[in-house]
Fold:
Amino acid sequence: MTIVSMRVNGAPVSRETPDNTLLAVFLREGLGLTGTHIGCDTSQCGCCVVRIDGTSVKSCTTLAVQVQGCSVTTVEGLAQGNSGETLHPIQKAFTKMHALQCGYCTPGMMMSAVDLIEHHGKPLTEEDVRHGMEGNLCRCTGYHNIVRAIIAASEEMHAGSAGKQPETQAR
Amino acid sequence: MNPATYLRPESLEQAAKLHTDFAEARYLSGGHTLLPAMKQGLARPSHLIDLGAIEGLRGIAFDAENKALLIGAATRHVEVASSAEVLEHIPALAGLAGSIGDRQVRNRGTIGGSVANNDPAADYPSSVLGLGATVVTDRREIPADEFFTGLFETALAPGEMIVQVRMPIPLAAGYAKFRSAASRYSLVGVFVARTAQGVRVAVTGAGEGGVFRATALEAALNRDFSAQALADLRVDAAGLLNDLNATPAYRANLIMVMARQAVSHMGQVSSFK
Structure:
C-alpha cells in the first residue's frame, strides 16, 4: 500500500492504494469518477484515456502510484463553471455533430481529441484526425461524425489564437 | 493482477541492488508491455522497480565523432518520433517510433522496454538489428547481432539493465510494415539499412524466434540495391509464425512485399493495414 497523491481535475486527492491499482480503477472506484471507462483492458480501445500533465495516456495501462504528484484530467474536468454548465468546445461539437451512439467510447474519444487539438497548434485535417485518433475504437462505428466533431472543435479552439508551435509528426 | 510492491529508486546502483534483494522483481519502464503481461498472469513479479526517476536514462544526443545517435533507455516513443536529431540523421527511425501502437502508447512506451522485452511483433528490435546498433547496459556493451536470442529472450543477464541504445548513422535506411488493424502490432516489418559495411535487412513480426536478419535479401541488395533485385527472391515459410492474423506462407510473401517497399522508399516509413 502507498499513499497516492495527485491533482485530479484541479483538486488535490490522496488515497491509500494497493501498489498494483491501475489509474483507471483508482479514478473510478477510489474517487467515484466513473466517466473514465474500461473497455478492452488491453490498451487497444482507448475508452480509458485521461490526460496526465497534459499528455494523453491509457489509464488501464498505467499504475496509480506511477502518477504520484502529477496533475490528471478526466472527462469530468472538461466542462467549466461552478456546476459544469459551460461545456468544453469538444463536448459542444460532439453534441452538435451527433458524434456518439451508445456513448461508451465517448469520454476517451474526447480526452484524446483535446490532447490532439492542443498539441497540433492549428486546425486539424481529416487525415490528421484519423491518424491521431488511431488509439480510440468505436464499436458503433460512428467514426464519420466523430471526425467531423473533432475538426469542428479544432477550428473553434484555434480560432483567433496564434496557436502553439505545431508538433512534429513523423509518419 | 497479482499484488506487487512498487519501488522507485533514483540511481542505477539502487535499482540493481533492489533487483538483487528481491529475486522475483521486475524493472518497470513505460509499463506498456509489463502491465498487460501481469494482467494476463504471464508475469507475476513480487516487486516493480520503476526506472522512471533515474537521472540520465532519458534523452537523445548525436555523437558527431562516432556518427551515432545515443538514445536513453527510458526515452519514450513520442520523443524519438519528434526528435530533431533523429529526424535529421535517421528519419526512418523517427518514422518507425511514430508508427508504434497509437498516440497514447507512444506517450508511455520506451525504447529500452521494447528492446528488453523482444516481443516478436515489436518494431524497435528491427531497427536495432537492422542498423547494427549497440545495446549499452549497466554492465557492458552488447552488439545487436548478439543481443536478440529468441522469442522474448535477450542476452541480458538477470538484473541487467539497458541504459542506452547506440544507433550508428547509416547511409540510408527505410522501414515498411504491415500491421493488424485492431492490435496495431506488425504482422511483418522489414528494416533495410545501407551502411558503409554493406546492406543489413532485419525482419520483425514474422519469425518464431523473434527478429532476424534476412541474409539472402542482404546478399541480393549488396549486388544491386533496388526493389527489382528482390523480384525473384522467395523467403522460406519454415520457422515463420502461424497465428490467427497470418499463416507462415502469407508472412513469407509479406516479407518480400515489405522489403521491396522499404527499398523503394528509403528515408521513410511505409505503414500498411
Q: What stands out?
A: The CA atoms of residues 7 and 71 of chain A lie 5 Å apart.
